[in-house]
Amino acid sequence: MKTILGIRPKQLWLALGNNRCFHLLAMFFFLFFFQNIGAQEEIVEKKEDSILYINLDEVVLISSRKALGQQKQTKPLSSLDEYLESAQKVNMVKRGAYAWEPTLNNMFSERLSITIDGMRIFGACTDKMDPITSYVDVSNLSKAHVVSGQQGSEHGTTIGGAMNLELHKSNFANTGLKGSLESGFETNNELRIIGTALDYSSEKFYIDGDIIYRKAENYFDGKGNEVGFSQYGKYNFSANGGYKVNDGGKLTATLIFDEARNVGYPALPMDVSLAKALITSVGFEQDKLGTFSDWKSKLYFNKVTHIMDDSKRPDVPIRMDMPGWSDTYGFLSQLQKLTGKHNFLLKWDGFYNKSLAEMTMYPNNPNESAMFMLTWPDVRTLNTGFYAHDQIDLKGGSLKLSTRITLQNNKVADELGLNSLRIFYSDMEQAQNHFLKSVSVQYHRHLAPFHVNLGMSYGDRAPSVSEGYGFFLFNSFDNYDYIGNPGLKNEKSFEGNAKISVQRAKFKTSLEGNIFHISDYIIGEVDPMLSAMTIGAEGVKVYSGLKYADLVNVSWDLEYSVLPELKWSWTVSYHRGTDNDHRNLPFISPVAYRSSLSYKKKTFSGTMTMQGAGKQTNFNGIFGEDQTQAYTVFALAFGKTFYLSNDWVYTKVGLENIFDKYYSTYTDWNNIPRMGRNFFLSLSYSIN
Amino acid sequence: MKTIKLVIAAIIFSIGFSSCTKDDDSPIVEGNPLADYKMVSSLKANAHTIEVYSKQEQYTIGYNELFIRIKDDASDSYISKVEISWTPLMHMSQMQHSCPKSAIVADGDESVYKGYVIFQMPGNDVEYWDLTLDYTIDGIAYSVTQLLDVKAPADNKRRVTVFTGSDDVRYVLAMMPLTPEVAINDFSAMLFKMKNMMTFSLAENYEVALDPRMPSMGNHSSPNNENLVYDAESKMYMGKLSLTMTGYWKINMKLLNESDEVIKGEDVTDENPESSLFFELEF
């Protein structure tokens, strides 16, 4: 995508309302990114080169730090989760108001590759309360690339696809010193946001810094009931710098520190007293290396600490602490080569991750010893891989071939943890090796007036730490304890995708679909012989490989320019997931739709959106699901820019869930209701 | 060049350092074969000092492995080639009884003798244990009786149980010492029939079914336990005990005879949270 649109400073900005409202600009980028928008203020260069149609990624543009850009965003200071939710293939699983877990093509994080500037980071929570997207803030980022299936294997092995969050960098833009102040307020949960950013950039050197603070109280659902334990507070600091050592070479460095405290998870029996991440990297980039170009290398380290506890809960069967730690050391190095019709990319990457999590339970009898176990037994993952792709320009079309080969070694370093797992697997080895491979072919052809895209691919993945080595991980969704299985086979995916699109001056539409046939699909299956550890749990599930599972996603998009200033857009999607016994897979979206009407003229903008889903008919009680009812919600937003001498002040006001609808979606953990009516206001002051 | 020199210097220094510490680390081998054990009693009688050592801190109810040696006070040397037998006796207000015990045999070192005693109950103000040692040195028989202070274990957890089975036989079941770990532990126990107040005999070829539970955590169980079965060689019942976490575990048991009839104990169910036959562990 980045190769498709050349975006000038007056960028398109997107934001989504809290209630998955869809906005017109989101449509532009997420659904029709490669098409000529023909907009007025946005200056979009459309390259005619058909090779650019081959990449079917969606780009979510994020920026809270430039008032210029905020004009295009419906809710500039919304959380990253809200931005990601606007991507067409992305849904967010909610366990509360904070740290939503992204899913892509109805697949969860263990089937995805989620990276920050290509860096691998792994959450430290056994219950997925800290997806890595919770450790960055919109103030750090410029965009998120969302890629489906094996096309996402550039940054790591994946089944469902990839999300790469790109950090904001001034990149030697020679803009001098620029600053901004941001503040936001939302009525429903008294969310207060305050942030500031300061960038300095010259031709030789740049440094960008920002800090943002968010604090929210409990939110209220559509019936006016307070959703207890939905509060959160967090701050995030980041600094990015670059220095040109010579004409073609530059050094870069990144530091992000993110800390959330007192985060409630209303859908779960526990909260988080601390979630903290330190993300660092140093890099070197050189324009030319022999006959190659764009040589980029990076060393990185990140450390995540996650403290789960239930000290704020008034009534629990037993008190417990569940801290977790995840440290990752990694590197990557890549080169490009452009020759004639070919555009090669070669990449070598690797990481070493340590994942450790504990559980200590305090009996009600104070004289009794605490109960202790390792829920992640200090699993060390050593992973290294080669990735290569070639984009070939064909006459009237293009072809992209890509492949990844990865070696992964998993080792249980803690003896107590190893012995714990050997209770279940007496002959388990301390270490397991996985050889992973991915190949993908994408083809694009321009058959005027249509663009046709076809793709096929194969890829596999190793089991995640929880799937391979988790020890009595309680899942409050299906009310089962989960035991990892070190003998799991790699999960393998055959995937096909197709897209047909057409564009006219005022109108464009596309139909897109993908299908995944996944063998040895990893999922928890009930073992009736095992006794649940967690009080009140129904039993124990052991991760095992289903013979196969099939997932299908189909979507249809439409956009129409009623007037030059007024656009209407529409998207509807269908999803289905079944296993080899025709059982429904969990967390598969019902029919979903979004529509928006957007008006923009000079310094004023307004959007009205409608978003909803049909009744969930394909659900599965075995996996803890019940039927989710249909819903439709509406939102409104208005923005206005003021000029003060040389500076800008940008205001945005909006109303989400206008009719105070009480609803929850299929991704809402234990059916916690969504936020009711919410009024938001954001104010940005940009000092040029 | 400078770097290489530094590296060499570092290597030399580290070798020198480690060889120095090696000397310091090597402890002088103690001549006392019972240095690792705790002397639980020492008694002077018959111009001898009779020392009793235990792996535990005290005489404790349940299984006690005891080491005995006898010192000649005159020569201040430990005597070998001693024949020893022993009789522990509980003096209760209405009666007296003994407990299961082994014979006493020499333990490698000629002057050290060992055996085990399984006390069923602790002493108190009015009821007490004593231990009579009859020993012969060079054909001369001696006898000594000493009072024992038998206590409940520090954690007060049950490691021995006395019961009357459905066959009207009185049994003593004692857990062998265990350092529990979060793992599948080797677990063993000894089973005796009580023939009369003074005589206990090994009960062979029974089976002990295990069902460990955590009462503080919803009474959950653990997987892949193996029932205790009789091992003729060690004369013990051996099996596997799986403990999925630290904390307090109640090891519920059922004693089965050769025809799989239940002699003692009940299944643990939602209505019946524990068996009447159980051991306890806390770690």
What key phrases describe this protein's structure?
heterodimer, A: five-stranded mixed beta sheet, 5% helix, disordered N terminus, B: 283 residues, Immunoglobulin-like, ten-stranded antiparallel beta sheet, six-stranded antiparallel beta sheet, 1 helix, 50% strand, elongated
Describe this structure in words.
The complex is a heterodimer of chains A (688) and B (283). With 688 residues, chain A is mainly beta. Helix content of chain A is 5%, strand content 56%. In chain A, strand 6 and strand 7 form a beta hairpin. Chain A is globular. By secondary structure, chain B is mainly beta. Chain B folds into two domains: 114 residues, Immunoglobulins (Immunoglobulin-like, Sandwich), CATH 2.60.40.10; 123 residues, Immunoglobulin-like. Chain B has one helix and 22 strands. In chain B, strands 13, 14, 15, 16, 17, 18, 19, 20, 21 and 22 form a ten-stranded antiparallel sheet that branches. At the A-B interface, strand 21 and helix 4 of A face loops of B.
CATH superfamily of chain A: TonB-dependent receptor, beta-barrel domain
- Give the class of chain B from helix and strand content and strand pairing: mainly beta
Number of domains of chain A: 1
Quickly name the level 1 CATH class of the largest domain in chain B: Mainly Beta
Poorly predicted tracts of residues of chain A: 1-51
